[in-house]
Amino acid sequence: AAPPSVNISGTWALELTTPRGARDLTAELDMKDDGKVSGEVSGERGTQAVEDGRVASDKLTFKTQRTMGSRTFEATYSLTVEDDAESLAGTMSVGPRSMDVTGNRTATASATNDDGKAPAVSDDEFDHAMSLYRGPVRRIGSFAITNAKVYTVSGATLDGTVVVRDGKIVAVGTDIKFPTEFEVIDAGGGSLIPGIIDAHSHIAIDGAGNESTLVVTSMVSIQDVIDPRDISIYRALAGGVTTVNVLHGSSNPIGGGNAVIKLRWGSDADGLRFQGAPAGIKFALGENPKRSRGNPPPGVPPRYPATRMGVMDVIRQAFSEAREYQNARQQAAKGPKGTLPPRPDFKLDRLAEILDGERLVHAHCYRADEILQLLQLAEEFEFRITTLQHVLEGYKVADEIAAHGAGASTFSDWWGYKVEAYDAIPHNAALMTHRGVLVSINSDSDEEMRHLNQEAAKTMKWGGLDENEALRLVTLNPAIQLGIDDRVGSIEVGKDADLTLYDGHPLSVYSVVQKTFVDGDLYFDREADRVRQAAIDDLKAKLAPKKDTEDGEEAEDKTNEEADPDDPANENNMPDTEPPPPSSTQPEAKS
Description:
Elements: E1 10-18, E2 21-31, E3 36-43, E4 46-49, E5 51-56, E6 59-68, E7 71-82, E8 87-94, E9 97-108, H1 123-131, E10 143-151, E11 157-165, E12 168-173, E13 183-186, E14 191-194, E15 196-201, H2 232-238, E16 241-246, E17 254-257, E18 259-262, H3 269-272, E19 280-284, H4 287-290, H5 308-334, H6 346-355, E20 360-365, H7 368-380, E21 387-390, H8 398-404, E22 407-410, H9 428-434, E23 439-441, H10 452-461, H11 467-472, H12 476-481, E24 499-502, E25 513-518, E26 521-525, H13 526-543
Parallel strand pairs: 10-13, 10-14, 15-16, 19-20, 20-21, 21-22, 22-23
Antiparallel strand pairs: 1-2, 1-9, 2-3, 3-4, 3-5, 5-6, 6-7, 7-8, 8-9, 10-11, 11-12, 14-24, 16-18, 17-19, 24-25, 25-26
């Protein structure tokens, strides 16, 4: 017999159609892993045990016996399980007579704990609630978003329609025809923008994001430690973010490789990867790699470098070695047959890729002097810095950054969280933009990334950017910096359908993300999220119910006579002194 493809364990309400009318029955069934079924069927004429019960594929068969006087009648049930094991239909035969049977599952089987008591939540109920958090809300692929204010970013803003087919944008305009079978999503006059791109993040990392034991760790990669279960992915989607540049930390002058990911919540680590995105690597200058704010444990000698000039020395020495390694490989390739190339070196392989223009450099930096030092070193070795990350004093050397061809990925208005951040100004992004630097606004924070639209909006006040220039800071500009602007960053025909729908202006603090699409699939929906949260809250209530008093009434919180611990007016919550500045254990502020 075929193995079972459904589990029919639970309680079923059956309706038996007889010549004298319908008769209601209740079946309590229990199925083992091998498909054998036991239980009982009860009705107005008594209860009969299930005999010879079995499920093969989606077919359920069993027998019951009923004795009337000296006679015994055997009934044979032959049923097909349907609707994901929630209904069934078939016949019940007694001798030559056959009658129709239909039924619906009214309850799943209750498991028991080790103490023999049924758990508050069944496995099926738990799996159903958890499944709401796994993967997209719906896989759509082909649809049309109508009645939207469409911010293409690369072109005009229009009141119109965006049509998506198989995850790609196929039409953008004001009077668009599309197949009648396409699903229509009415934006209700809301704003549709390209999915937000965060050019600097450390979410979705399993464990530490810093390999701090060496000064050059180009051989390691964030690709190897992507954690697809990080709830920050889902929360970022709720803020309209669809693509993230996950970077190594900043404890090394030359750190590890990056990972550009799409926020396909529910996918495995490989499924998150942005296929085709150019490889990158993290550099770092200043206080973090020279370890200004930390001391080694007792007995451990300080790690070189301890100064900014030492940081530059480490980078220069590394590229000197990489150039020799590269030359040796080239000479071996040109040499006589049998000439052996140098032994593979994963550290130098990555640096050679930079020299060959095959790997992008994302450099953590703050001060103007160290920015110039790095640009000069890169030009000395004939490679380009792709993005200067943080770059809080970039406004001081914007012309030099533009002349080198580097991009800048900065904060909106973070300031003073460490000494090298004291000269930061909120005009930084706008000033660099006006001097010809390709600028993006990043978060470096799993919280701030949820409102990057508002961070971009600040540049309209601090620097006078227009709304399209501001939107570019978190959409098209970071896409260009990461080398993925042929796929994402703007609403254009042929690009991936990574889209974010707001209920108001996309740069307003009052606007809220309603839907977020990645590759044409709906990964966040505000209404669906309410359903998800209600299901989780229901589970929590069942798993951890409030304690009752002996009288059966809800126990009163005995602390209610005290001040509310969450009330800001409670003097116990007031700090004794002004809060200290962030330490190196805080958002690195920004690594």
